[in-house]
């Protein structure tokens, strides 16, 4: 940014010198030859000089960072610079039109058609083109309205020089009226350029959104992954900087870090479309794109004839974790329950593709006392002892996995078993409750026991 600021100041300073050079030679030759066309071009060059000076100071001040009194920076000084240039352009055009009309009415044309008049115009044209191209290049790179206005000044000076040169040629061949007519044409061209410049200046000073930009930005932001909707967007320019303030709707169930990542992507997208922009993105809680997961689980569970309780939905960077308990008819067999759980999980994953983990628990309904089973076993070292306890209990066909986890100086036990598929849920829970109480009574240091039942 600092290199770009230096380039802006350098091209503005060189424009001051070029404008001063053109002004001096055009005024000298204009007075010597008496050509109103050349004097009009000289007046325009004088205007270019003044505008170049204003532009130099404008770009120098505009690049200052925000401070305690100017929270949005100093960019609008460039727009005020362009406004001053516009006023000067209109004033100059008024004088040129007055003099041209006066000469045409009086019919008095005092023109010294020396070689100097042609030379100064021939010199002015390539110099003006070079300045306009240089200013336009830096203006486009830096989005500087002041440099763009200065480029427009030099470009209109080129138009004027061409018209004046043509007027001098016509005067040489006996048509002196061509000189004031050329001056009028220059004035019209300058007025046209001034009107366009004034319109752009007032648009920025009144915070008008750049034409066509808002629609493009909304379309780009809407396509950002995670953005549900663009609630509002405001765009305004101040000098070379564009300020964008937008509110986007994101999934209200997302964790803070994921929502923040989406907002970062929105900022990056806006900065790609409008470089050097100042972007503020506000999040708005929105309904998840596929609906609320909890509502769906409640709905689909009812459809299968079971009830979902204690639903927990956790969003992680790699996916969504779903946990809940179910209540159901205790007379259902474990085989029927397992089929329902399998269908529930499949439906949830199909509906919400970001779900990576589903845990449906029946332990909520496990009884801890009142069991009818009174079976004892012979117990040896820890894992073998637990396996032997399970191995002699009716209804449990086999234990396919056993996991011991040390937690807070206690051992948590996770047991995965195949049960008789024809057992009812109520009977299955009684077996689970009995096994849990038996293990805790026989083995010291046991914490939480979880027994996961699947049909054989």
Keywords:
456 residues; single chain; 4 domains; three-stranded mixed beta sheet; rod-shaped; Alpha-lytic protease prodomain-like; Alpha-Beta Plaits; 9 strands; alpha/beta
Give structural notes.
With 456 residues, the chain is of the alpha/beta class. The protein folds into four domains: 2-205, Cation efflux protein transmembrane domain (Alpha-lytic protease prodomain-like, Up-down Bundle), CATH 1.20.1510.10; 213-286, Alpha-Beta Plaits; 293-364, Cation efflux protein, cytoplasmic domain (Alpha-Beta Plaits, 2-Layer Sandwich); 366-455, Cation efflux protein, cytoplasmic domain (Alpha-Beta Plaits). It has helices at residues 2-33, 36-62, 77-106, 115-142, 145-172, 178-205, 213-222, 256-273, 293-303, 334-351, 382-391, 425-442, and strands spanning 227-238, 241-251, 277-286, 307-316, 319-327, 355-361, 396-407, 410-419, 446-455. The protein has a three-stranded mixed sheet with strand order 1-2-3. Strand 5, helix 10 (334-351) and strand 6 form a beta-alpha-beta unit. The radius of gyration is 42 Å and the shape is rod-shaped.
SSE diagram, text form:
Layout: H1 2-33, H2 36-62, H3 77-106, H4 115-142, H5 145-172, H6 178-205, H7 213-222, E1 227-238, E2 241-251, H8 256-273, E3 277-286, H9 293-303, E4 307-316, E5 319-327, H10 334-351, E6 355-361, H11 382-391, E7 396-407, E8 410-419, H12 425-442, E9 446-455
Parallel strand pairs: 2-3, 5-6, 8-9
Antiparallel strand pairs: 1-2, 4-5, 7-8
Helix pairs in contact: 1-2, 1-4, 2-3, 2-5, 2-6, 3-5, 3-6, 4-5, 5-6
């Amino acid at each position: 940014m600092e290199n770009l600021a230096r380039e802006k100041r350098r091209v503005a300073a060189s424009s001051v010198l070029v404008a001063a050079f053109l002004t001096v030679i055009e005024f000298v030759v204009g007075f010597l030859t008496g050509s109103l066309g050349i004097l009009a071009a000289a007046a325009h060059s004088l205007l270019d000089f003044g505008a170049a000076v204003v532009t130099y100071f404008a770009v120098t001040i505009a690049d200052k960072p925000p401070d305690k009194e100017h929270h949005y920076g100093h960019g609008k000084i460039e727009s005020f610079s362009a406004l001053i240039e516009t006023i000067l352009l209109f004033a100059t055009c008024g004088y040129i039109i007055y003099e041209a009309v006066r000469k045409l009415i009086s019919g008095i044309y005092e023109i010294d058609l020396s070689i100097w008049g042609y030379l100064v115009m021939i010199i002015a044209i390539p110099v003006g083109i070079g300045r306009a191209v240089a200013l336009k290049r830096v203006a486009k790179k830096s989005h500087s309205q002041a440099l763009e206005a200065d480029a427009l000044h030099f470009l209109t000076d080129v138009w004027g020089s061409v018209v004046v040169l043509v007027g001098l040629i016509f005067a040489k061949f006996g048509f002196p009226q061509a000189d004031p007519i050329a001056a009028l044409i220059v004035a019209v061209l300058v007025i046209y350029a001034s009107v366009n410049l004034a319109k752009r200046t007032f648009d920025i000073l009144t915070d008008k959104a750049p034409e066509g930009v808002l629609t493009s930005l909304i379309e780009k932001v809407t396509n950002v992954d995670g953005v549900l909707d663009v609630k509002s967007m405001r765009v305004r320019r101040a000098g070379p900087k564009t300020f964008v303030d937008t509110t986007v709707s994101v999934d209200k169930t997302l964790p803070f870090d994921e929502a923040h990542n989406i907002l970062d992507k929105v900022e990056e997208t806006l900065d790609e479309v409008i470089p050097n922009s100042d972007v503020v993105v506000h999040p708005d809680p929105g309904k998840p794109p596929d609906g609320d997961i909890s509502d769906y689980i409640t709905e689909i569970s009812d459809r299968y004839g079971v009830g979902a309780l204690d639903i927990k939905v956790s969003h992680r960077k790699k996916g969504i974790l779903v946990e809940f308990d179910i209540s159901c008819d205790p007379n259902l067999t474990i085989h029927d329950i397992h089929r329902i759980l399998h269908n529930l999980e499949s439906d949830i994953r199909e509906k919400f593709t970001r779900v990576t983990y589903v845990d449906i628990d029946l332990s909520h309904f496990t009884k801890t006392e009142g069991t009818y089973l009174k079976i004892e076993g012979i117990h040896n070292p820890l894992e073998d002892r637990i396996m032997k306890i399970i191995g002699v209990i009716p209804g449990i066909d086999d234990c396919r996995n056993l996991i011991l986890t040390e937690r807070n100086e206690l051992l948590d036990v996770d047991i995965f078993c195949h049960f008789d598929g024809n057992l009812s849920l109520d009977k299955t829970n009684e077996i689970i409750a009995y096994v849990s109480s038996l293990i805790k009574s026989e083995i010291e240091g046991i914490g939480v026991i979880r027994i996961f039942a699947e049909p054989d």
